[in-house]
Write a structure and sequence with these properties.
The chain has 259 residues and is mostly beta strands. The chain is 14% helix and 34% strand.
């Protein structure tokens, strides 16, 4: 159980979104306040300084199981299948000042390792935060789940340049350009459309990739990529030109790979 630190992490990650006032659009190099602390992706408040910005963020500096990572050496094994139970949800898009996030209605979940993990939201990073043998991709989507034991499980999917993606098209058409804005539509979407056809994956124990960098997060990174168009990549980058934390040391962790 992550207890109090989990509640902080959920809040910082934007999982418990409340109505907030519109604010002037900021680039990722500008300052953003979270719990009174300003952090971003560049300069004096960039990732290499997160651990010094607040005692709450100390794991960003001292943690030994941090995310993202460069997935290079893996150990293959007979890993459990992920059983997806994602239902349609009404489109609820938030510009939270760090990314574009889509909040999911209750009732969608996965079953993994005997646990039920509810899908809370998904959001985007550019470039990809995880690397495959040193290779980054234009974008990465993170599907954030809270499991019945209280821990977090995040599924990462690489997004490569290619054909236009229909679900991304629906989201981009209504995504708010101003920080703090929320767009709600009757349009229905389903996160299943963000998953690649092949369900092979890598998995390891890591952390949130944003402050407070809470550890104990189960990561599942899909091996196969999905495609988005160059225009769709540029549309996101027009709001967030860079919102990816650099890869962190693997230390003594083992990355498992499904057969």
């Amino acid at each position: 159980m992550l207890g109090k630190s989990l509640l902080v992490a959920l809040s910082v990650a934007g999982l418990l979104i409340a109505g907030c006032e519109s604010a002037k659009k900021q680039s990722t190099s500008e300052k953003k306040e979270v719990h009174g602390m300003k952090w971003g992706y560049k300069g004096e408040i960039g990732p290499d300084r997160w651990g010094d910005l607040s005692p709450e963020f100390k794991l960003c500096k001292t943690g030994k199981a941090q995310s993202p990572i460069d997935i290079r050496e893996t150990k293959k094994g007979k890993l459990p299948q992920i059983e997806f139970h994602y239902a349609d949800t009404k489109l609820n898009v938030v510009n939270n000042g760090h990314t574009i996030q889509v909040n999911y209605e209750p009732g969608s979940y996965i079953l993994y390792e005997g646990k039920k993990c509810e899908l809370l939201q998904f959001h985007f990073h550019t470039p990809s935060e995880h690397l495959f043998s040193g290779q980054a991709f234009p974008m990465e989507v993170h599907l954030v789940h809270k499991c019945e034991d209280g821990n977090l499980l995040v599924i990462g999917v690489m997004m490569d340049e290619g054909a236009e993606h229909e679900l991304i098209k629906k989201i981009w058409e209504v995504m708010p350009s101003q920080e703090g804005e929320v767009t709600k539509e009757e349009v229905k979407i389903n996160a299943m459309d963000l998953l690649p056809a092949s369900r092979g994956y890598y998995t390891y124990s890591g952390s949130l990739t944003t402050p407070p960098c809470t550890e104990g997060v189960k990561w599942i990174v899909m091996k196969e990529k999905i495609e988005v168009s160059k225009d769709q990549i540029n549309r996101f980058k027009s709001l967030y030109d860079m919102n990816a934390r650099p890869v962190q040391p693997l230390n003594d962790r083992v990355v498992m790979e499904s057969e």
